[in-house]
Amino acid sequence: MTAARLEVFDDSDALARAAADFVGLCARKAIADSGRFTFAVSGGRTPWAMFEHLTKDDVAWDLIDIYQVDERVAPTGDPDRNLTHLYESLPPQVTIHAMPVERADLDAASLSYANELPAQFDLIHLGLGPDGHTASLVPGDPALEVADRDVAVTGPYMGHRRMTLTYPVINRATEVLWLVAGADKADALRRLQVGDRSIPAGRVSAPSQVIFADRAATG
């Protein structure tokens, strides 16, 4: 893993506010440089709070493309879907590129989604599981070894198969923002910081990475 700088916040709300400010800065820079901002978002509860603050920011939502880092294979509208919460959290003028997990042929669907991706994301948001997983790159899954595709489909994990971005596309990102909250993440965060490749998160090697963590996650 490329060394990531760590910023620590007192609680999850301060973390969400700081993350929203960071995303807003990245968005404005990318739009000024290229006319659009490409942002891939992971699932989990932490980004919901970030978006609540971000929607109050002065960003050009109509020039933002939101992609999914990962998604559970479940029907449209299912509460387990990350997409459901994205639609609830974001203003209507933003363009959301949904992972096509409803399709019968998931391998073909993953190739189709890969064709929608930009050559390089401006920003990718990643979370961190207590087991060291990130995106839906989970310990022991064959998707960890996928090097020739930008999107893969996993085996079952916590009740669902998943579609996920793979290391090649994550590692090409201009910037990676890790959001880590909760005491149950303390061991995984420590291992992430030292680049422990025995956990999936430790294999992310994007050239510029920042970790925003609450104090509980730092142990």
Summarize the structure.
This protein is α/β, with parallel strands linked by helices.
What would your notes on this structure say?
With 219 residues, this protein is an alpha/beta fold. It has one domain (5-218): Rossmann fold (3-Layer(aba) Sandwich), CATH 3.40.50.1360. It has helices at 12-34, 46-54, 82-89, 106-116, 167-171, 186-193; strands at 5-9, 37-41, 64-68, 70-72, 95-97, 123-126, 151-153, 162-165, 176-180, 209-214. The strands form 2 sheets. It has a 7-stranded parallel sheet with strand order 1-10-9-6-2-3-5, with helices on one face. The protein has a 3-stranded antiparallel sheet with strand order 4-8-7. The radius of gyration is 16 Å and the shape is globular.
List keywords for this structure.
219 residues, alpha/beta, Rossmann fold, seven-stranded parallel β-sheet, three-stranded antiparallel β-sheet
Return the CATH topology.
Answer: Rossmann fold
Averaging pLDDT over every residue, what do you get? 94
Distance between the termini: 21 Å
Q: What is the beta-strand fraction?
A: 15-25%
Structure summary, number of beta strands: 10
H-E order: EHEHEEHEHEEEHEHE
How helix-rich are the residues, as a percent range? 25-40%
> Given the structure, what is the number of helices?
6
CATH architecture, by name, is 3-Layer(aba) Sandwich
Shape: globular
What low-confidence regions span 5 or more consecutive residues with pLDDT below 50?
A: none
* Number of domain modules: 1
Task: Report the oligomer.
Answer: single chain
The SS-based structural class is: alpha/beta
CATH class value = Alpha Beta
Biggest sheet: strands, sense, closure? 7 strands, parallel
Give, in spatial order, the strands making up the sheet with the most strands.
1-10-9-6-2-3-5
Q: What's the Cα radius of gyration?
A: 16 Å
